[in-house]
Write a structure and sequence with these properties.
The protein has about 120 residues and is of the alpha+beta class. The chain has five helices and five strands. A hairpin with a 5-residue loop joins strand 4 and strand 5.
Length: about 120
């Protein structure tokens, strides 16, 4: 079995490998992971993302990510890109976190034909 340390933020097969990890393994990653269903409802949210964002897992899982959790990313640059049938894009972005701009790198992943989508967040 692959270890989480082998799954780099930019790994070509990151989407598949991350979805195969258990929650404890996902929590060990050095970057944030938000796993959503096709309706943008958060299914999994790792400890790294919780720590940096300041949002506890129980406030995020089961909620619409772009409407209820991170409305600052409900726009053409992020949320609307997931309308594509498949997606693997990395962009520099700025979250508005507690009214403060926070630069991050986002990797948006949506495997073709999959039932889950991922947003990876590399905090700077």
């Amino acid at each position: 079995m692959n270890t989480t340390m082998e799954i780099e933020f930019n790994a070509a097969d990151a989407a598949q490998r991350l979805q195969e990890l258990g929650d404890a393994e996902l929590d060990e990653l050095p970057y944030g992971v938000v796993e959503m269903d096709l309706d943008f409802v958060v299914q999994r949210y790792n400890a790294t993302e919780s720590c940096y964002s300041g949002l506890p897992r129980e406030r995020v899982v089961g909620r619409h990510f772009f409407r209820d959790v991170a409305p600052c990313s409900n726009n053409r640059r992020v949320a609307q890109r997931y309308a594509q049938p498949a997606l693997d894009e990395t962009i520099a972005y700025t979250f508005a976190l507690r009214m403060q701009p926070v630069p991050v790198t986002l990797r948006m992943l949506k495997p073709a034909g999959g039932q889950r989508m991922l947003l990876l967040v590399q905090w700077t």
